[in-house]
Write a structure and sequence with these properties.
The chain has 309 residues and is of the alpha/beta class. It is 47% helix and 15% strand. The protein has a six-stranded mixed beta sheet with strand order 7-6-8-5-4-9, sandwiched between helices. The chain has a four-stranded parallel beta sheet with strand order 2-1-3-10, with helices on both faces.
Length: 309
């Protein structure tokens, strides 16, 4: 059973309500139909007819009170809420939906901004980031071709503390959504000090911080991608690594590397890329590529539903 099938089957075990605010997109409507038919999740399509005017006014006031200290005006808040994303975010914050999936017609920046501001951050962390579940067919690496790639969508140049948070939240997702024991590698262009750079120092600091947060986690770095996922290469480059070339959670040093990496793997290998799934929020939410397929939407909804179970 591949990762996509496992995710859909797991979502069915406890049906969750996932809000889909982009009612204008036919792909969303078709995905909602399949989700309901196959009982993967309960999709809630947010159309103008389903928006309660009283609730909208209440959400506007609540949002205004949340951010008035930042000198945001009420007129600006009202303008924000002309976009369904903000109403959907406040519904999720309040628990009227278990999660949120959007991005078929919005940019990642738009979706992330609405989710961070409305849903809020997990109190354990002070950042939001993102990851992809990568499912590579006929692949012997990772967990039979299944990986988590992070961060591929939000933080341009994470510092050491942010890298450690990205790694911790990505590892938690691997366990929660895929039921995999996370084996985390901080990726770089060098392996275990083979290059002396500020980037390598940052990763070494992130490794220390992560071990303090989660002492029992299987994690190592900094390391090149082949040393992280190929046992024979790991034996040569880092024979003492606890990962043994079997990493399944790959933490990229910056957004450029992460975004380029996932797109290359997706296009060159025909891999399924589920996400970006937001990490570090108080409630689960996921973004989509604007070029997403109906199946991409279904898989993101299923993963989001599992995280709320």
């Amino acid at each position: 059973m591949n990762a996509v099938t496992r995710i859909r089957e797991q979502a069915k075990k406890k049906i969750k309500t996932i809000i889909l605010p982009e009612y204008e997109d036919q792909r969303m409507l078709e995905a909602a139909r399949i989700l309901e038919k196959e009982q993967i999740a309960k999709p809630l399509i947010l159309t103008p007819d389903t928006i309660d005017r009283n609730e909208l006014d209440r959400y506007i006031r609540e949002y205004y009170e949340l951010y008035r200290s930042k000198d945001i005006g009420l007129d600006i808040v009202k303008k924000l809420f002309t976009d369904n994303l903000y109403y959907a975010g406040m519904m999720t914050r309040e628990g009227k939906a278990d999660g949120l999936v959007a991005g078929s017609i919005h940019t990642t920046a738009d979706v992330a901004r609405a989710c961070i501001r409305c849903i809020g951050l997990d109190e354990r962390f002070t950042i939001a980031s993102s990851c992809f579940i990568m499912d590579v067919a006929n692949c012997q690496f990772g967990d039979n071709g299944t990986f988590i790639f992070a961060d591929c969508g939000i933080i341009p140049d994470p510092n050491a503390r942010q890298l450690s948070c990205i790694a911790l939240t990505a590892a938690e997702l691997a366990l929660k959504v895929l039921n995999l024991t996370p084996r985390v590698a901080f990726l770089s262009y060098s392996t275990k000090g083979s290059a002396k750079t500020k980037s390598a120092e940052k990763i070494s600091e992130a490794l220390v911080l992560l071990k303090e947060q989660s002492p029992d986690m299987l994690v190592d770095g900094e390391m090149q991608a082949d040393a992280a996922i190929v046992p024979d290469v790991a034996e040569i480059k880092c024979p003492d690594s606890p990962l043994g070339g079997q990493a399944n959670v790959l933490i990229f040093p910056n957004l450029e590397a992460g975004n380029i990496g996932y797109k290359l793997v997706q296009r060159l290998s025909g891999a399924r890329a589920i996400g970006p799934l937001f990490l570090g929020l108080d409630k689960p939410a996921s973004d989509l590529s604007r070029g997403c397929s109906v199946d991409d939407i279904i898989d993101s909804v299923a993963a989001t539903a599992i995280r709320s179970q």
